[in-house]
Amino acid sequence: MSLPTRIEAVFFDIGGPVYDDANFATAVLTALDEIRAERGEGPADRDRFTTLYDETRARQGGSLRGALSEEFLDGRHERALLHERTRRHWIQHPGTLYADVLPCLRALHGRVRTGVIANQEAGVVDALTRDGVTHLIDVWGVSALVGKEKPDPELFHWALDKAGVAAGQAVHVGNRLDTDVRPARSVGLGTVWVLRGEAPPHPTPEQLAEPDLAVDDLTGLAQVLLSGGAS
């Protein structure tokens, strides 16, 4: 596999590539404790929470909230409740934007179409505005705004249509195989896997073979993409 030689659009996931995924993990844990407190139960065991979180990262598949609901609530059928409660706590906090994001976007913007394709709440736009990112984004494929969620390929098609580019001339940058790399590839986009956040700490050779490119961070990525995907 290889990246497109002519790239006209680059899309980014937000949690992991752009903001520290600890924001999401903290929101889920806060929501979980909130539900348990309402039922007269104590906080969720932190070590067990970390184990389930790390297992989900290693698998690169399956629902963290489903696993947490089964372990700490009354079963996986309560995933929807945990999902809804998480929304009110899910904030991209000041200081959690990765330092390599703005340099990468500045290098790309104006030379290619730039956008986000992310499962996020609408408030993420406020966070990106606060952190000086919004003027560098051309296409806003935020699930809460579009009404579609990854891995639904329709969110990727929507973003491509808004950008006015073909899938074969676009790249998606994400940190999960199940909701980023695989659905983007199925639509025909090039794929970059960023190995931080919800990416596994020790990816297997089989996992590393799935994206067109795997990187530890965004440092130098713009140059690679602008040079036609040649590292």
Describe the structure.
- This protein is of the alpha/beta class and 231 residues long.
- It is built from eleven helices and six strands.
- A six-stranded parallel beta sheet has the order 3-2-1-4-5-6.
- Helix 10 links the parallel strand 5 and strand 6.
- Helix 3 packs across helix 4.
- The longest helix has 17 residues, at 22-38.
- It is globular and about 55 Å long.
- The two termini are 14 Å apart.
- The model has no long low-confidence stretch (mean pLDDT 95).
| Helical percentage | 40-55%
Strand content: 5-15%
Q: How many DSSP E strands?
A: 6
Give the averaged pLDDT, no decimals.
95
- Strand numbers in spatial order across the main sheet: 3-2-1-4-5-6
Poorly predicted runs of 5 or more residues: none
Structural class: alpha/beta
N-to-C SSE series?
Answer: EHHHHHEHEHHEHEHEH
Q: What distance separates the N and C termini?
A: 14 Å
Please report the number of helical segments: 11
Taking all Cα atoms into account, the compactness measure Rg is 18 Å
Q: How would a crystallographer describe the biggest sheet?
A: 6 strands, parallel
Q: How would you sum up the global shape? A: globular
List keywords for this structure.
11 helices; about 230 residues; alpha/beta; 6 strands
Describe what is shown at a glance.
This protein is an alpha/beta fold. It has helices at residues 22-38, 46-59, 64-72, 79-89, 101-108, 124-130, 143-146, 153-163, 177-187, 205-208, 221-226; strands spanning 9-12, 113-118, 139-142, 170-174, 190-194, 213-215. A 6-stranded parallel sheet has the order 3-2-1-4-5-6.
